[in-house]
Amino acid sequence: MKAKENTIITVNKEKVLHPVSSGLLGVNHRYFLDGVGMWDPDKFQVKSEFQDKLNTIGVTTTRYPGGTTANLFHWKRAIGPFNKRTPQVDPYLDFGPDNCSFGLDEGLQFAEQNNMETLYVYNFGNGNAKDAAELVEYLNAPDDGQNPMAALRAANGHPQPYNVRSFEIGNEIYFVPDLVDQEYWLRGETDRTKWPELYVHGGTVTFTKQLVGLESDWRENAAKSDGSGLQVKQIKYAPVNTDEMAPEIYVADQLWHRIENLSDAGKENIYVLDEMTGDIHFGDGMHGNIPPKDSIITATYSSTHDGFSDYVKAMKAVDPSINVYMAMNIPEAIHQAGADIDYDGMVIHPYGAFEGDFDPDNLTQYHYTAMVDAQRKVNVVKKLQSDLLLYSHRPIKPAITEYALHDSEFKKLGNSAEENALYYEGTLGAAIYSAWQLIEFIKMDLDYALRHSLIDRMFEKLSATPMAFFDTYTFLKSAHAYMMEIFCHRTGENEVESIFDNVPELTVTVSENKQSVERTIQLLNGVATTRGNECYLLVLNSSMDEALEATINFPLIQDTLAEVWTLNADKIDDFNTDELPNKVEKLTSEANVASGAVQYLFPAHSLTAFKVMLN
């Protein structure tokens, strides 16, 4: 470490830089599997034990119905009486069915009851602009006799509008991860070979012998005939465009023929197709043959879909005040959108993931590589912000709707389920990674930063589970929950100037583009804010093992007692378990501010928050 003496932090409470958006103190949440465990499907309410834990944090924004799981979420299937709802196709259940008890109204009312804004993710994977506009009407229009969807909302028990302000059109529509493919209809064959053009402007694609499915089941077995009469299969990416080509339905690679009415047919290999829904109706053995049991049914067809520009136009025609965000975070999409589409920014998920194979015993190397990556990902967000300005000709902003350390190269191996499943991304060190990013997002004056995720199955060997605030089964409060609690309760309404002088630095060697390079990180970072007569200072010490001292100056403040909250643990890779629920926790103390200054020793690997009352 390059040591520097006399580190000085100065808080200029009189110099206001910009307001701090409440959307920065948010979290991603998901509808599936009963809100991943926080929703009681029998009582149709939030589980009281979970609500008690949530109350301690103070999150101000939530995301519904989630990310990946939102891409195929039909909102109209998630409203009204539960026993009349149609199950959703859930990518996390291998595209199988998921009963939606934590539906649209339940999700929005959960946010209302907790004074949280909701950011909604619309299902670009299988939706359309007209349906999205009807969603905006359902959520935001008055029930005044002029808006049928608002009348439906009122009939479902919520007469007043929800007033949802921001919408994402799809989730991560730009890559093919190992877990879930998220391009959906964009993967069809087309003369528009570039996905960004299709995403932004829409277009026509074709599919050749694509497996069919069921309305709520896209698993491979759903393409097999069950041998019953009058069975219905479904083409996945309706509507079917017959102007481009005649659809073809194959049963065990044999072409069957389309007719208009089954009652007019005999024992023939025929079907009836609903072009709008994609439903394929087969016969009963007398009027149309039954596809042989276990035969594979496929479809060759053409389909035309709306693009992002269509969504923006249709949704803002209903409510011009809403924000609509792109979800294809690649430069080509920004180029395609240009300056002619009235959109409000682009979604980005700056997860921590980086090169390198790490020795499980070399935690130091991993931690500092992660901290270099935290700053790198912040720079990626800054680059996106400049690109949005360049191509839109407007000061629109990135919207961060998922972020966390999501790199599993380093993990603890042991005999317990926790050690085997809980990667470093569930530890205090991972919380420090996120705290570094959130400090920078506040400084960037962004509108949204929603950390992933509110609740998950922490101790199961599943992707992204250790990053949650709470565990599904016990509602255990994680290091990340304590980190967010500090930010929520110790971040004010306006950022004020904070100057960090003579900050200790560390130069580390990391791998970038398969080359070893040296990078320097500052070990102390922070941000200052105010609310009314309260002044807050958040300081992060990302040093692995050294406490760092600094003089903190609060000019124009008389002698006072500062409240101090500290997130810390004995070791940087500590995490909470049911047996040891407080290995990482928030500690409270006080510090004397004498003549506007305090000398303070920041513990190694810690987040510290000061609250000072202004004179």
Shape-level CATH architecture of the largest domain: Alpha-Beta Barrel
| Alpha-carbon Rg, integer | 27 Å
Mean pLDDT: 93
Report the CATH C-level class of the largest domain.
Alpha Beta
Uncertain ranges: none
Strand content: 25-35%
How helix-rich are the residues, as a percent range? 10-25%
Classification by helices and strands: alpha/beta
Got a strand count? Answer: 32
Number of domains as seen in the coordinates: 2
Tally of contiguous helical segments: 12
Largest sheet: 9 strands, mixed
Q: Ends: how far apart? A: 38 Å
Question: What is CATH's topology name of the largest domain?
Answer: TIM Barrel
Description:
The radius of gyration is 27 Å and the shape is elongated. The mean pLDDT is 93. It is α/β, with parallel strands linked by helices and 615 residues long. The chain contains 12 helices and 32 strands. The chain folds into 2 domains: 361 residues, Glycosidases (TIM Barrel, Alpha-Beta Barrel); 103 residues, no CATH class.
Helices and strands in order:
Layout lengths: L7 E12 L6 E3 L3 H5 L2 E2 L4 E2 L1 H7 L6 E4 L23 E3 L5 E3 L5 H10 L3 E6 L6 H12 L7 H8 L10 E4 L25 H7 L1 E9 L20 E3 L13 E4 L2 E5 L11 E4 L5 E4 L14 E9 L2 H11 L4 E3 L5 H7 L7 E4 L14 H30 L4 E4 L16 H5 L6 H16 L6 E3 L2 E2 L13 E2 L7 H11 L4 E8 L3 E8 L2 E8 L1 E8 L2 E8 L6 E6 L6 E9 L16 E9 L3 E6 L3 E8 L2
Parallel strand pairs: 1-28, 2-5, 2-20, 5-8, 8-9, 9-17, 13-14, 18-19, 21-22
Antiparallel strand pairs: 1-23, 3-4, 6-7, 10-16, 11-15, 12-13, 12-16, 14-15, 23-26, 24-25, 26-27, 27-32, 28-31, 29-30, 29-32
